[in-house]
Design goal:
Residues 1-17 form the signal peptide. This protein has 246 residues and is an alpha+beta fold. The protein contains seven helices and ten strands. The chain binds 2-acetamido-2-deoxy-beta-D-glucopyranose (NAG).
Length: 246
């Protein structure tokens, strides 16, 4: 009996490691062609509408909306903030502006923009924001409009069963700027309505400063999305199917 269970488990694990062909909506580009980056941008743009719908075979989650159990916010020293049960909305409208792939340095750059991204979920905050003490937990809405993102990552090539696969290294990086940010934290200060309303007004009037402290919620979400999507395909599809070297 134990033997049988072990067999089933190992079969499942082995099955996940099997390589898959490139999905039909992702078209490769010729690395040595002068218009390689333009080709990557064009093919990336054409693939996006398919990617955002999710593709379970490649472990790509659905992006409309994306559900995240938790988002880590690396806030300032004096502030702790946790977001849980997050629904990230608007990601399916992400637009690609530039793709640059440096196969010698093994580095990829992606510029993207979004007209609107909404994080709807539960927050737990404690500490100081700018100069004011803030404390509370409850439902929240953190929204950014006209957001621009620059995502870059390095990759290594890993040989598995005779084929090479790209693997993202840990030092991926996301820079972003937003046109405007909106915050709504319900139930601040144990539900004290006056204090809560005053704080929300303060946050929204000072959004440019506030986004520096809690904007990590947005950048971590986008980084997770970009990383999950790239790794999903890289893990299953061999390098030689994604890029053409000739
Ligand atoms: C979140 O806040 C934005 C900006 O105020 C607003 O447009 C949007 O409707 C809100 N979303 C929800 C689900 O309340």
């Amino acid at each position: 009996m134990i033997c049988k269970v072990f067999f089933v488990v190992s079969f499942v694990l082995f099955g996940q490691g099997l390589s898959l062909p490139r999905p039909s909506y992702i078209k490769p580009c010729k690395v040595n062609s002068p218009d390689f980056d333009d080709c990557a941008l064009e093919h990336g743009r054409a693939a996006l509408p398919y990617i955002v719908k999710g593709d379970r075979k490649y472990s790509i989650p659905k992006l409309n909306p994306l559900k995240l159990p938790a988002v880590n916010v690396d806030a300032g020293q004096n502030l702790n903030i946790k977001l849980t049960d997050v629904s990230a909305e608007g990601l399916e409208k992400i637009k690609l502006d530039r793709v640059k792939i440096d196969t010698k340095a093994r580095k990829v750059f992606l510029d993207m923009h979004m007209s609107k991204v909404e994080l709807i979920g539960q927050y737990d905050i404690n500490g100081k924001i700018l100069i004011l003490p803030i404390q509370g937990k409850g439902p929240c809405n953190i929204t950014a409009t006209d957001a621009k993102f620059q995502y870059s990552f390095n990759y290594i090539l890993e040989k598995i069963n005779g084929d090479e696969y790209m693997r993202l290294t840990e030092n991926d990086n996301l820079e972003f700027e937003v046109g405007r940010a909106y915050f709504k934290l319900e139930n601040l200060f144990n539900g004290d309505k006056n204090l809560g309303d005053t704080m929300n007004t303060f946050l929204n009037e000072n959004w440019e400063e506030v986004i520096k402290e809690i904007g990590g919620a947005i950048s971590q979400t986008i980084r997770t999305v970009a990383r999950t999507i790239s790794s999903g395909y890289f893990k299953k599809v061999p390098y030689r199917e994604l890029l053409i070297f000739e």
